[in-house]
Amino acid sequence: MPEPDLEQLQRQHIETLQQRYSKALVETGYDALLISSGAAPMRYADDHGYPFQGYGPFLHWTGLTGLENSWLLIQPGQGARLQVHTPDDFWHASAALPDEAWARDLAVEGSVETAPPLPVLSTQLAVLGDPLTLAGVPGDHNPPALVTAVEATRIHKTEYEIACLAEANSRAAEGHRAARAAFLAGESEFGISLAYQQATQQRESEAPYHSIIGLNDHAGILHYQFYDVVAPEVSRSLLIDAGYRYRGYGSDITRTWAGPGQGEFQALLVGLEALQKRLCQAVAPGVDFVALHRKTHLGLAALLSSAGVVKGMDEEAMVAEGITRAFFPHGLGHLLGVQVHDVGGKPVPSPADAPFLRLTRTLEPGMVVTIEPGLYFIPSLLAPVLAGPLRHHLNQGLIDILSGCGGIRIEDNVVVTAEGGHNLTRACLP
Ligand code: GLY
Ligand code: MN
Ligand code: MN
């Protein structure tokens, strides 16, 4: 059972969703909506499914990540109905019906059917969900105007959602502390992942995304996906990007640590952390996120200069010539919610100078964003610069030393408030 406050907030959250969804349905000409929870597809020629987490709009209403083949039926003016798939199956545990206060505000029922409940008296039925689960279901499947309108309902978080994201941060913080200790104790990437899971008490398949745990040069692979079971001879650096899912909501936190004797890397790390904190402090309503991303590049240029990685170029020129992009190829951040890269962040496409930026909005109160600048030594991106006309500006010897540490990313989750921003991550992981 959640705390009484959270319980109250969740009931308000559902009420807000009723209003937001009613408006979206009226505006797009529908009088009923079915939302599929989704189902994990089977692996080809096998009898095992892929790990399952659930479809965003279903999680937005229920927070229930483990329910496959379940349905929500929403009819403005008539409330919402939740059908939970409870098959007669002696191989697996059956899903328990939620019995918390919010669920009592919906009509909840178990069903052995995978087919959805159908509305009576609906003439315009829309259906949202993974097309793999919608075969044979009547109504308009994933109509684009409604998909866009429903995505818009997720941009501004309710108080309940912010409380869940705060808790998701607090629990992940325990994992990050344990991971740092495991790194300093010389554990392998696999050992560090075990320490993280032990501290968070969450298996990785339930976390919002597969953790990224890279030692040494692996820290320079943006979404490094393996775990070496053997520790390297010398652990020079650790980059860990790992979250926690609480009642459907995911935190997304990255920390980078230097091992003993890595003076040059440690200096760069201190500089990047200072820049990251300044960027978090800049979060406020009215801030253009694309402009903040560009400001990050100028900050990185200053850091590359002061660290002696790049010499004899002014900051604007380093950005204009694409040098900072070779060190920081991804975006500054994204919206966060029931999906780690939450929807609704790009009403306009990313600009040509920031092709991987996932958020092109002006910040408004209620948005929750990540702020995650990075600085990496990625051979395939640095090679053309090191071979090009500006090569004399780069300190190859220092780059060789730093390459052994892979890279740095520091990532916090920040709520945009009426006054500025509230950093959910630093509140529990200073
Ligand atoms: N964990 C993926 C990201 O930071 O966007
Ligand atoms: Mn992120
Ligand atoms: Mn991340």
Automatic annotation (TrEMBL):
Question: Record-annotated residues binding Mn(2+) 2?
Answer: 241, 252, 411
Q: Name its co-factor(s).
A: Mn(2+)
GO terms in the biological process aspect are:
proteolysis
Gene3D superfamilies associated with the record: Creatinase/methionine aminopeptidase superfamily, Creatinase/prolidase N-terminal domain
Domain Peptidase M24 spans what residues? 164-418
Q: Which InterPro entries match?
A: Creatin/AminoP/Spt16_N (IPR029149), Creatinase/aminopeptidase-like (IPR036005), PepQ_N (IPR048819), Pept_M24 (IPR000994), Peptidase_M24B_aminopep-P_CS (IPR001131), X-Pro_dipept-like (IPR052433), X_Pro_dipept (IPR022846)
A Pfam short name = Peptidase_M24
Cofactor comment text? Binds 2 manganese ions per subunit.
- Location of the Xaa-Pro dipeptidase N-terminal domain: 10-147
**Record's GO cellular component, any one?**
cytosol
Q: Name one GO molecular function term.
A: phosphoric triester hydrolase activity
- Tell me the enzyme class: hydrolase
Documented EC number(s): 3.4.13.9
- Listed binding positions for Mn(2+) 1 are 252, 334, 372, 411
Which reaction is recorded as catalysed by this protein?
A: Xaa-L-Pro dipeptide + H2O = an L-alpha-amino acid + L-proline
Key words, A-Z: Dipeptidase, Hydrolase, Manganese, Metal-binding, Metalloprotease, Protease
Q: What does this protein do?
A: Splits dipeptides with a prolyl residue in the C-terminal position.
What the record says about family reads: Belongs to the peptidase M24B family. Bacterial-type prolidase subfamily.
This protein's name: Xaa-Pro dipeptidase
Q: What is the lineage of its organism?
A: Bacteria, Pseudomonadati, Pseudomonadota, Gammaproteobacteria, Pseudomonadales
